Amino acid sequence: MKNQKIALITGANRGLGLETAKQLGEKGITVILTARSIEAANKAADSLKEHGIDAYGVKLEVTDANDRKAVAKYMEEKFGRLDILINNAGVTPNNREGFTNTSLDTEPEEFEYVFNTNLFSLVSLTNLLLPLIRKSDAGRIVNLSSILGSLTIHSLAESPIASAKTLSYDASKAALNIYTNHLAFALAGTNIKVNSAHPGWVKTELGTAAAEMEIPDGAKTSVALALLGEDGPTGRFIHMGQELPW
Questions:
Q1: pLDDT given for residue 97 in this prediction
Q2: Which of 26, 55, 81, 143 lies 20 to 30 Å (CA to CA) from residue 97?
Q3: Is 132 within the bounds of a domain?
């Protein structure tokens, strides 16, 4: 285990999270899959074990402080370090359908729900796990963002995302990008790299069946950023090897 990389992926019981864990596991990396229930986490881990992947399931409701502390304790006691953290778990607002501009009718409760998962809890979990990531020879933190968090692309005269302006979600991803930028600066000079990943519009429960990309392709950006070499970028917003504007 000493020379085997260890990765923790949040929201890994299905969709992009599970596929990311699968692709990392196929490269010989030990993967810890978290989900809101231990049953879902273990089921996902067992599905990878069937393919010879070293996988573990752990309960983590990211908005639960006790769960976050329990995960950090588990990782410390079982592995003693963490090489890769992929902050994959995320939510969209309830009762929102289609591509509309919600700037005029977003209630405070919606902001609280979305930001609590997509930013506040993510930051708290990352801070708890940072001491373990610092023990890695090549720590990597990957934050699952979205092109919808790009102010530059939203502002283009002919923006490809002009019709998609769900304020709470987009603002949470823009804030996540700021966190990526700031955390990368805070960790400058260390062996830890921090990047935001835009997976693309993927056929997941969140992306819907209308999306353009299949799940295996959607996971490729996170996997690539998790395995960056020493000369790889940090503090960047990436999709399929290409840098996106903030």
A1: 63
A2: 143
A3: yes
